[in-house]
């Protein structure tokens, strides 16, 4: 079943030198699956995620045939209606928990605020629900964490709190923008496993935005590879290592590997033609 | 004689109850021309060792000697900076935003006491693969990879024997990372450099280094050769788990 259907999405920014096109005609669908979007910095992957939630501020321009969430076009909604969508139906986890948590508010109050905003319940119930959610993201002493301020938390803890906060209104879609890039490898696994379990249990759709090809191929079901604002290739995640496009191949070959020592790494030579080829459809 | 000798190194921050022991009893040696890696998670003390060597961490005890000369305190003389240079993690933060590439390099060369500055700036830019057209640009006109090349050129300006690399590619895209790592490999050969490199990325260390030390909570838990790393022969359980977590899934099946 299709949760989200994006057709011909463009994101443009007017600059003094003319219009800069960050995303150029991207189409894809998302079902109850884990969809990875990979690319280098500047490829438009984060902008795609933000455009879905209409988080691009003017003068930035978002244009599309439709961005349909279960049949409703999000671009046609008013700002007030859009607020109901954000958090309640589509949530987003950003890269660095340090910048997405309020530094002067206790963690517990922040999570409760997220829940109270979307549900007509009392404080006691919100509190119980928050504790339960913190336990669901494997936080051992949730009582203490509820009372703590964000600066008392490590990066991994912070990101788990963010995930707890995003999942508490029970959204249908979670957009995770580089959720583990600021974390150590061992913590990365923990956070991913938690996210994976929750997404599976609740039958959610996940858009996982990352620059890390290995991580995406291991963690997702399907992958879109973006370059210069377009999708250049799409494939099943476990087939990523058999990818055909020279850009994807170039990225894969530029990674150092422990099992294949080389004196020099392969360097990616960019072909200007890659940016000109129309976007590949990312429909399942 | 070893190029870098570290023995019983302790580094701490703060005093009394606030004291944090960042490095506890670290010991290793690096031979001339060798490339040695320090790996571990954030907070394991790997960058602190580099900072202690360069005098950026004032409180330390133990023994650090560079090319046979023991260091004391946190003041380093001019000869030290001719011999040892450092490249930092974030090329966006380590270059002065209002100094052009030319100013950055000329000033450094002047401090090292060179006369033929113009010719040297040209040569440094060629060495790091930037060329003349970048000479009068400002950092905001450069990409992350180009900035890191400028930072490397600045480190090479004093013709050092030892370069300390603190996560030189972790802020860069993988394709740019490959370019910078290749550049570092070439420079090491051309200039007969000794590298001490810090990274959290085991494949990067495996690619660049001959030997490495695994750090956890301020202590070195294991020193091993890269061959052992590639053969997955880590002895300490922590190194094994780190290695487990770093193996690319595709390489396991392929």
UniProtKB/TrEMBL annotation, chain A:
Keywords: ATP-binding, Cell inner membrane, Cell membrane, Membrane, Nucleotide-binding, Translocase, Transport. It is a peripheral membrane protein. The keyword Transport applies. Signal peptide: none annotated. It is found in: Cell inner membrane. One of its GO terms (molecular function) is ATP hydrolysis activity. SMART domains: AAA (SM00382). Its main location: membrane. InterPro entries: AAA+_ATPase, ABC_Ni/Peptide_Import, ABC_transporter-like_ATP-bd, Oligopep_ABC_C, P-loop_NTPase. Pfam families: ABC_tran (PF00005), oligo_HPY (PF08352). GO terms for cellular component: plasma membrane. Residues 4-253 form the ABC transporter domain. GO terms for biological process: peptide transport; transmembrane transport. Belongs to the ABC transporter superfamily. This is Peptide/nickel transport system ATP-binding protein. It comes from Cribrihabitans marinus.
From TrEMBL, chain B:
Residues 6-242 form the ABC transporter domain. The keyword Repeat does not apply. InterPro entries: AAA+_ATPase (IPR003593), ABC_transp_ATP-bind (IPR050319), ABC_transporter-like_ATP-bd (IPR003439), ABC_transporter-like_CS (IPR017871), P-loop_NTPase (IPR027417). Keywords: ATP-binding, Nucleotide-binding, Transport. GO terms for biological process: transmembrane transport. Gene3D superfamilies: P-loop containing nucleotide triphosphate hydrolases. SMART domains: AAA (SM00382). It comes from the Bacteria. GO terms for molecular function: ATP binding; ATP hydrolysis activity. Pfam families: ABC_tran (PF00005). Belongs to the ABC transporter superfamily. PANTHER family: D,D-DIPEPTIDE TRANSPORT ATP-BINDING PROTEIN DDPF-RELATED, TRANSPORT ATP-BINDING PROTEIN. This is Peptide/nickel transport system ATP-binding protein. The lineage of its organism: Bacteria, Pseudomonadati, Pseudomonadota, Alphaproteobacteria, Rhodobacterales.
């Amino acid at each position: 079943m299709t949760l989200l259907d994006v057709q011909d999405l463009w994101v443009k920014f007017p600059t003094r030198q003319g219009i800069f096109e960050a995303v150029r005609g991207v189409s894809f669908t998302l079902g109850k699956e884990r969809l990875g979007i990979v690319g280098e910095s500047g490829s438009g992957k984060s902008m795609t995620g933000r455009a879905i939630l209409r988080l691009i501020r003017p003068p930035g321009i978002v244009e599309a045939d439709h961005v349909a969430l279960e049949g409703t076009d999000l671009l046609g909604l008013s700002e007030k209606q859009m607020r109901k969508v954000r958090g309640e139906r589509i949530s987003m986890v950003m890269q660095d928990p340090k910048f997405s948590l309020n530094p002067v508010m206790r963690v517990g109050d922040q999570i409760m605020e997220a829940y109270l905003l979307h549900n007509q319940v009392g404080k006691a119930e919100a509190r119980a629900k928050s504790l339960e959610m913190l336990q669901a993201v494997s936080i051992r002493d949730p009582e203490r964490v509820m009372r703590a301020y964000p600066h008392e938390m490590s990066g991994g803890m912070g990101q788990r709190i963010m995930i707890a906060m995003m999942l508490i209104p029970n959204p249908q879609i979670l957009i995770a923008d580089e959720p583990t890039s600021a974390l150590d490898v061992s913590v990365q696994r923990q956070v991913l496993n938690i996210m994976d379990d929750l997404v599976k249990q609740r039958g959610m759709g996940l858009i996982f935005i990352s620059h890390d090809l290995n991580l995406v191929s291991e963690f997702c079901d399907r992958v879109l590879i973006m370059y210069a604002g377009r999708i250049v290739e799409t494939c099943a995640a476990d087939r990523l290592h058999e990818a055909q496009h020279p850009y994807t191949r170039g990225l894969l070959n530029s990674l150092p590997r422990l099992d294949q020592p080389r004196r020099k790494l392969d360097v990616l030579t960019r072909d200007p033609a890659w940016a000109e080829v129309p976007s590949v459809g990312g429909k399942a | 004689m070893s190029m870098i000798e570290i023995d019983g190194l302790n580094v701490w921050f703060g005093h009394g109850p606030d004291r944090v022991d960042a490095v506890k009893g670290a010991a290793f040696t690096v031979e001339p021309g060798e490339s040695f890696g320090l790996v571990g998670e954030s907070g394991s003390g790997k960058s602190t060792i580099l900072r202690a060597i360069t005098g950026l961490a004032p409180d330390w005890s133990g023994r650090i000697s560079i090319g046979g000369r023991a260091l004391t305190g946190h003041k380093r003389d001019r000869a030290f900076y001719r011999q040892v240079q450092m490249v930092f993690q974030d090329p966006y933060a380590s270059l002065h935003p209002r100094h052009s590439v030319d100013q950055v390099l000329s000033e450094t060369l002047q401090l090292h006491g060179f006369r033929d500055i113009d010719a040297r700036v040209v040569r440094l830019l060629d060495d790091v693969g930037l060329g003349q057209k970048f000479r009068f640009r400002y950092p905001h006109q450069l990409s992350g990879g180009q900035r890191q090349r400028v930072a490397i050129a600045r480190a090479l300006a004093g013709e050092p024997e030892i370069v300390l690399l603190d996560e030189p590619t972790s802020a860069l895209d993988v394709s740019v990372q490959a370019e910078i790592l290749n550049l570092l490999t070439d420079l090491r050969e051309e200039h007969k450099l000794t590298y001490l490199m810090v990274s959290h990325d085991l494949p990067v260390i495996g690619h660049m280094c001959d030997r490495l030390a695994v750090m956890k909570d301020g202590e070195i838990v294991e020193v091993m050769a890269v061959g052992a790393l590639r053969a997955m022969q880590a002895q300490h359980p922590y190194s094994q788990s780190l290695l487990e977590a770093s193996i690319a899934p595709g390489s396991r099946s392929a």
